[in-house]
Amino acid sequence: EEPVGDRELPSLQLTYRVLRDENNVLRRMVRSMQSSLESQARTVRSLERRLKASLVKEEREAQGLQMLVQQAERSLQLMTQRALEAES
């Protein structure tokens, strides 16, 4: 009669191969996900830099427009003052 251990050996070897193959598949999935996360992190950093640059540019443009408005207001006040002086 065949010992019990010998009958279980092929089953254990099969289970080991299945688990090893699953492990390899899972490792590949993890590497793929890590690579994807790294790529997404690079994209986020790039978008953050672009957003910051855009906000800086927008702030500069807003300041420039504010200066133009102030200059226009001063010019208008000066023209109004001159017109009033010319009338009197």
Automatic annotation (TrEMBL):
GO cellular component: centrosome; ciliary basal body; early endosome; midbody; recycling endosome
InterPro entries hit by this protein: ENTR1
Identification of the protein by name: Endosome-associated-trafficking regulator 1
Coiled coil (residue ranges): 30-82
Alphabetic keyword roster: Coiled coil
Record carries keyword tRNA-binding: no
Zinc is among the record's keywords: no
